Protein 1
Amino acid sequence: MVRLTDADSVGLVEPRVAHFDQPFTLQCRETLPRFDLTYETYGELNADKSNAVLVCHALSGDHHAAGYHAPEDAKPGWWDVCIGPGKPIDTSKFCVIALNNLGGCNGSTGPRTIDPDTGEPYGANFPTVTVKDWVKSQAMLADTLGIDRFAGVVGGSLGGMQALQWAIDLPDRIEHALVIAGAAKLSAQNIAFNEIARQAIQSDPEFHDGRYYQADAVPRRGLMLARMVGHVTYLSDDSMGVRFGRELKSGDIESGQDVQFQVESYLHYQGTSFSERFDANTYLLMTRALDYFDPALEFDGDLVRALRDVTAKFLVLSFSSDWRFPPARSDEIVDALIEARKDVVSATIEAPNGHDSFLLPNARYFDVLGGYLDAVARSRG
Amino acid sequence: MRPDLDIIAALINPGARVLDLGCGGGELLHHLAREKRVNGYGVEKDPEQISACVRAGVNVIEHDLDAGLGRFPDSSFDMVVMTETLQAVAAPGDLIDEMLRIGEECVVTFPNFGHWRCRLQLATQGRMPVASHLPHQWHDTPNIHLCTFRDFERLVTDKGLPMIERFVVDGHYQVRRGISRFANLIGTIAFYRLGRARSG
């Protein structure tokens, strides 16, 4: 049901594309001769351009964070619950910028883009992209919009990691880093889940070593499996129990005929719809960016040293039932910030929905996130 | 500001690193940041108080003191403060040890169970005392480790901790004549500033 007329919706929005006709050298030392970033903005940039908030997306997100592209859209942008007039990221106070990251599959340059050197899609040859590369390219987007300094950089999960990297890499260009359901680096278990997802995609016969565009194929099965395993890690045992329990969609267990549990049907649906909208090479690229993220690495693994030149103030939020990036992982960031003598607010939100909690409405979550940003807006006058 | 926080603020050096355990709405830290350029962090578990800190722009860490303070490294703060929280934690003695592991010094305040009103209520009515500084009924109180000033000082002595300063005040946070001499009888709240046990 479209709620375009809701007072707290940003309403109809239109993506824009920023073209960068200059070479961009990535952390892996490969160079893209040029690139595009697709983005959306919500709210008005003030006269001195000091009220900009950058929203960074997670693994499968894009630039469409809030509002609707058309009145008939079934769903708004992926973080619409948080972005809008009067919402926690209040577009009556802030100008919100959301983009599709480099390497994405929804308008920005990525594996589907034609490589000017070969005349074919980059495919699996698209260079390795890191969170650092994203921060650098996001800063170039800010330049084109005339934004010297973000009032805040905010994101959940992989998006929160970008906020952390922003504070480290560009301390003069960020006032507040809002890291939600994030981590300073992935654990072995996190990497393991990502590798299962990658193997699912790469072992699909339709993957064709990443050249599936040329083969006119789509590794749907692999993407579906990747999404299914990912999705399970985003939920909690409790929330799945409440939502599906052992309820059957069809068949009956006594006869053992055509048994399908509700949870199976749900995962099939999630996996299938994902495989229809998302690019497999982008999924591989994004999961690798997650796995390689470790801002402390260039400081001998010492996160406190990595944070030494940070000037941004931090909000670090985690969710009680999140086992993908549990509260203890956020605490690692918080403790390093305290040791580095940086300003930080941290809260653990009691929420039943696992890692996905950062995308769902929750009174306390919104109170802390909105309260923090409200204080940011007030301090700027 | 709450009068007790004024007393504590006076004990803290400008520019100090301060950890405030059970920081409430962050009043003390807000004051210290503004007046003394203090790099401070509050520790709090109550969501409403945390929200108040967030809105006041005070650094606050959501953390339950009963989960221990292991996350804070040795000597990472100049001063660790805990106002009227000692009586509500599971292991007050261990917490004092932890405060002095993390901080060079600590300030602890708590309500006096040895106040004459408390003694009188127990003696004459045979009931658990309820007073302005101890407003809860026995069955509905966060205070699980109430003690008298004398009890606390015994603990400090047993631990061999130097007592750098002690302030005793009445229910209006005023220092009255004779209050120091008859502290355990007429004092309502005490502020203890403690240092680390001298080793060797």
Protein 2
Amino acid sequence: MDKAATDVATKQDGARHGAVQLDDVNKWFGELHVLQDINLTVGPGEVVVVIGPSGSGKSTLCRAINRLETIDRGTITLDGTPLPAEGKALAKLRADVGMVFQSFNLFAHKTVLDNVTLGPTKVRGTDASQARERARELLDRVGVGDQADKYPAQLSGGQQQRVAIARALAMEPKVMLFDEPTSALDPEMIKEVLDVMVDLAAGGMTMIVVTHEMGFARTAANRVVFMSDGQVVEENTPDQFFTNPQSDRAKDFLGKILRH
Amino acid sequence: MDTLVENRAEIWEGFRLTLWMLLVSGILATVLGTVLASFRVSPVGSLRAIGTSYVNVFRNTPLVIILVLSAAFWPTVGLNSIGVLGYSTFVTFAVLGLSVYTAAFVCEAVRSGINSVATGQAEAARSVGMTFTQSLRLVILPQALRAVIPPLTSIYIALAKNTSVAAIVGVPEAAYVMRRLSNKFTSDVYAIFLGIALGYVIIVLVLSGLLQLAERRLAVAR
């Protein structure tokens, strides 16, 4: 039986699994058409990996989903609600969408613990002691509980990224976006971050992951979306995509990255 | 030298006024300047326009003109008697004039501090659902502050010396006292000038010492 199918079937535990839908999304950076008629549906609890050569628009796509990038045409909906354009409604939406950045972006002037509690206390209005308790749980879960009182600069890249994941999870998001979460990490730290992500995926989180980690795509993804030159070129299960790519562009890309 | 000693009470009164104006307009200018800086980086176009116009008007107008206009303006809106804590109405006029003038410079210093904070910090703040104001207040400004202290120090030093312009609207602060004494005791002019100058130097040294201390404290907190 297809591994992806069993994964979806076992994802029943959480209650806040969101769905994301992109319809005819277009974006230009000046002359450059970075997103071209993108249609993508991500179901609740689904893990979609977006891969493709650099400059293919995959990061822009990821950032557009919580409107860190605006789009010029088309619609993006979260659980059926279109993204608000700005203001409080947009802030509210972003609270429900976790984002993990390539460069971690932990709040440099706050301790690890405060990084995780800041969102819940200031945005959700969670009581401070309750937020701290929850933050410690999350930090333990991602394996950096003993670093809670340090500042981000005192942590390794892998530890910082795991804190960033905990920070996003503290908001109890419906969807998690990962924008090349391991691209800025030393090789030995990549695994510790991917392990956390694999756990999350197994726990039923809806995830959209832009990455070059083919191993992660194979183990955790339900679907792989291959992008090139601003277009979705191919969409398939990881197994099918890696063993039997349909498009020349994907064959060429896989030929280059899987040779070593 | 004797002249300075004999008139120490008047000189001390003058410097007390100088310090009072420095303190109050320093605080007001910092608050107003920070608000203006957040206007200038705001996503709302009209707020940005307000911030930019403010800076253009007040930074480019000579302080003397602002002080004279301030003294002339407030009575026209009914504020004839706005002395605070025993300081005269004219002191308040001067404080308000110094504040609006200095705020333009504070605004630009704070704005450069805001721009020095990595964009990823703001993106992360927005991503956890903070509004623009929250991300500025909780994430950006605390980090910008550290970068802003050296330029702010220069602005406060300029403010300390600019308080002397208030003599124009009849505030008997240190420079006013200096002119009065030097007219009265013409043989002691140099001693009077140097004595008053020394007073300003001491104020500025203490001020920059305190800010240096603050800078070090904030740097450790990282």
